[in-house]
Write a structure and sequence with these properties.
This protein is α/β, with parallel strands linked by helices. It is built from eight helices and seven strands; from the N terminus they run E-H-H-E-H-E-H-E-H-E-E-E-H-H-H. Strand 6 and strand 7 (157-159) form a beta hairpin.
């Protein structure tokens, strides 16, 4: 998993409440188990018209936000079904941080396991960050995980909380497999001991 230490990029404002995982990545894109290529399906029902052409009114289709790395979203982001394709699609599009006032638990957990930083802020701070994000190409925000700070284009700072263990995993690029591999020596010693003590197993 790619480490997350700090990130500076354009922040796109997604001013929709209760964005569910079907909205993030519609069901027709769930046939694959690959983590790549899903960026084209991100918010597909909002990004594309029925004829397949782009919807120019959707935020990520606007020139200023096509390369957004941060999403500033309304309350209850990632609700609905537990599909892991949702963070995969965000990551494949290039989004590595989502900021909201609240997240659905499963989506929140899946973000950390895929190298995306979900940040919970107060409604007041969200409004400040949405205001920053509405600036189009000037909507550059910096996120510093080590300091737990979001810095806006005018230098304003929003601090955020994060569990120390989750922070450690993101800073070091450790997903569940990576955490297990860090204990490989202990696992091998245990296996050797069991084999010696119980050779019939």
């Amino acid at each position: 998993m790619q480490k997350f230490t700090s990130l500076t990029g354009v922040a796109a404002p997604l001013e929709i409440r209760n964005v569910d995982t079907d909205m993030i990545i519609p069901k027709q894109y769930l046939k694959t188990i690959k983590r790549t290529g899903l960026g084209t399906g991100l918010f597909a029902e909002l990004r594309y018209k029925d004829d397949g052409s782009e919807n120019p009114d959707f935020v990520l289709n606007k020139p200023a936000y096509r390369n957004a790395k941060i999403l500033v979203a309304e309350d209850n982001f990632g609700c609905g079904s537990s599909r892991e394709h949702a963070p995969w699609a965000l990551l494949d599009f290039g989004i590595r941080c989502v900021i909201s006032t609240s997240f659905a638990d499963i989506f929140y957990n899946n973000c950390f396991k895929n190298g995306i930083l979900p940040i919970v802020v107060s409604p007041q701070d969200l409004e400040k960050l949405l205001d920053d994000a509405r600036r189009g190409a000037n909507a550059t925000i910096s996120v510093d995980l080590e300091r737990q700070e979001i810095r806006g284009p005018d230098g304003g700072v929003v601090r955020f909380d994060i569990e120390p263990f989750r922070k450690h995993c993101l800073l070091n690029g450790l997903d569940d497999i990576g955490l297990s591999l860090k204990k490989a020596e202990k696992i091998e010693r245990f296996e050797a001991k069991v084999k010696a003590e119980r050779p019939w197993h």
